[in-house]
Amino acid sequence: MIVQLHQLAAALYLAAGLAAGLGLALPLTRLLRVAVAILAVGALIHGFSFSLFHEATPPVPLTDHAAAVSLMAWIAVLFSIVLLARARLLALTALVAPAGFLGTFFAALQLAEPAPTGLAGSGSLPHAHVLLASAGLSLLGVAGLAGALFLVEHRRLKSKRPVRFSTPLPSLEALDRANRVALALGFPLLTLGVASGMLWFESSTGRFWTGSTHETWSAVAWMIYAVLVAARFGTPQGSRRAAASAVCGFVFLFFAVIGVELFA
Amino acid sequence: MKVMLVGMNHRSAPVEVRERVAVDDVTPALTKLLASSEIDEGILLSTCNRTEVVVVTRSPDAARLRLQSFFRRDLADEGEAIGPEELGDFLYEYADAEAIGHLLRVASSLDSMVVGEPQILGQAKAAYAAAVDCGASGPILNRIYQAAFATAKRVRTETRIAERPVSLARVAVDLAKQIFEDLENKRALMVGAGEMIEMAMRSLRGAGLEEIAVANRTVANAESLAAEFGATAHGLDELPELMTGADVVLSCIGGDAPVITRAGLAAVLKARRNRPLFVIDLGVPRNVEPELDDLDNVYLYDIDDLADVASTNAKARKQESERAELIVHEECQRLDGWFAALRAAPTIKHLRERVERIRKGEVERALARRSLSDEQRDAVESLTRLIVNKILHAPMTRLKHEAETEEGMAYLEVARILFALDEDEGDA
């Protein structure tokens, strides 16, 4: 059931992505709104599937890689829907929906063939770690996507090319705001995720730091992000540089936290 | 019954001729036109780019002459009648389907100087309302104008003819909206106090931007423009300070040297905390150093950049206008059918009256020779009426149907000959 619900959510995210792409290309604002509605239905089904995790036999722990990736995709979609509702960012659906699809589709494949998690532990700490780190990673992912769209728009405006789509693309200011909000919420969550991870390791191994690849890469990524966040909020940094930092930072973070685990 | 349209527009006549027949209040001229016996209905549209009158008439030749004199005498200023040679070939004339098609194109803004501009629909609605108020518009023009408004709505919703701006001021506003989320809480700085600045201020105000500062060499000129828009007036020496708070800067001022330089802006960038700045340079020679565009958060567009965007948008509108023409064609065809059926109505009515007269005459003659009870007389009346209705049903249905086709007029003509309707008209 969990797998089927994941597949359905992935299909809806894909449909939302296609509808949003078409909405931009045709261009039809109404189609973009339909895309957001499909995305919301997908998020509902996706959310419902999590409630079945503990009822599965055996129960699926959040520490499972597939579950964590799925959770990240879900939080990213949820946060984007909130952003879409508050700002004129409909076009962001064209990026968020495919990202949500990839995460959920990958999770559905993995959940079909459950693998034992490499991380051991019990109690609330593992779940807190996965939940907080996933939320942080998702929000920083949304910041990265908003940053990517900002860079495309910035480049177009600088090159004086007339807009190809007459559907209103998000303004640079709206994209910059989305980037700032996502970063402001995402980094503290990531920090709490890292801290809860260290507490979890301490409770299971007796040490805060074991020197594992996951820990090392995560710590480096966190430090890089700390510098980026300090630059963003501590100095009058330009929006373009902030957008580029958000994109680069997320690429590195994704590799450090997910890529290293997957390809190790 | 004929629909006739006579008029002149920006393509057929120069402005010095158009301005002589343009009127602000159409009602007096329309009332005068409707006083003519050959005009049954009429609507007059007068804008800066066109003056057109559309009428419904049963005497096309007389109406044509009346409309010519309407343009020469009634529309011209008092005591300044225009001679026929002065009107020359400036007037165009359309009849029936062509006239209807033209009206639909005008309302849909396909015949405008700037294709897709929205004002013409409002002007057409105002002209129609004025005609309705003074009783000049009747059932035929009512129907045609309602169709014209519906067509304009279809064109606007089914095509993107009006989406992309083509005037420099509106292109600038459109670009500002691609940079800023909301213009209402933004500040604009206008450098100069000329006509271009005034037009741009109007567009920016229209887009919701409220806080505007005007800086000019001659502060008195800045003050008079600022007073008109509720803006603040400044001298050029205050530019650095004004640039610190501005989000949109629009410059169009005379002089050989740039008034906004990269060094000058770089000095205030820190105070601006790197907020994005949209700079529009409409000056020739340019008022803003092009190197300004190298700065990260500065988006500089000069007059050529805006013209390029406007020209691309105009091309896109032209493509859309081809789709719009198809919609107009569809709606015209629909109206053609109605109009043809309208022309068939007098023939059908005439035919029914003639046959009824024959029936009535023959029944009266036959009954006069016989003594029948009232009941029997009623039965004969009903029977003959039934026979006539049955005989007429098929040809009348066919006439109504065929009247909507291309051969409709031929069918109507044949019916008039076969039933000798014209002789009957002569007899009557």
What order do the helices and strands come in, and which of them pair?
The complex is a heterodimer of chains A (264) and B (428).
Chain A (H helix, E strand, L loop, with lengths): L1 H24 L3 H23 L13 H22 L6 H20 L11 H36 L12 H34 L7 H22 L4 H25 L1
Helix pairs in contact in A: 1-2, 1-4, 2-3, 2-4, 3-4, 3-5, 5-6, 5-8, 6-7, 6-8, 7-8
Chain B lengths: L1 E8 L5 H7 L5 H8 L6 E6 L3 E8 L2 H15 L9 H4 L4 E4 H12 L11 H15 L5 H20 L9 H12 L7 E5 L3 H12 L4 E6 L2 H11 L2 E4 L3 H7 L2 E4 L10 H11 L4 E5 L16 E5 H66 L5 H30 L4 H11 L2 H7 L1
Parallel strand pairs in B: 5-6, 5-8, 6-7, 8-9, 9-10
Antiparallel strand pairs in B: 1-3, 1-4, 2-3
Termini separation of chain A: 30 Å
Task: Report the largest inter-chain contact.
Answer: A-B, 22 and 25 residues
Number of strands of chain B: 10
State the assembly state of the protein chains. Answer: heterodimer
Class based on secondary structure composition and strand pairing of chain B: alpha/beta
CATH architecture of the largest domain in chain B: 2-Layer Sandwich
Structure characterization notes:
The complex is a heterodimer of chains A (264) and B (428). Chain A is built from eight helices and no strands. Chain A is mainly α. Chain A folds into two domains: 1-118; 124-264. Chain B is α/β, with parallel strands linked by helices. Chain B has three domains: 2-158, Beta Polymerase, domain 2 (2-Layer Sandwich); 168-296, Rossmann fold; 338-427, no CATH class. Chain B contains 16 helices and ten strands. Chain B has helices at residues 15-21, 27-34, 60-74, 84-87, 96-107, 119-133, 139-158, 168-179, 195-206, 219-229, 239-245, 262-272, 303-368, 374-403, 408-418, 421-427, and strands spanning 2-9, 41-46, 50-57, 92-95, 187-191, 211-216, 232-235, 248-251, 277-281, 298-302. In chain B, strand 2 and strand 3 form a beta hairpin. In chain B, helix 6 packs antiparallel against helix 7 (139-158) and helix 7 runs antiparallel to helix 13. In chain B, 37% of the residues are buried. The mean pLDDT of chain B is 88. Chain A binds chain B through residues 87-88, 153, 157-158, 160, 162-163, 166, 168-169, 171-174, 177, 236-241, and chain B through 160, 163-164, 175, 177-182, 270, 273-274, 276, 293, 296-297, 299, 301, 305, 308-309, 312-313, 316.
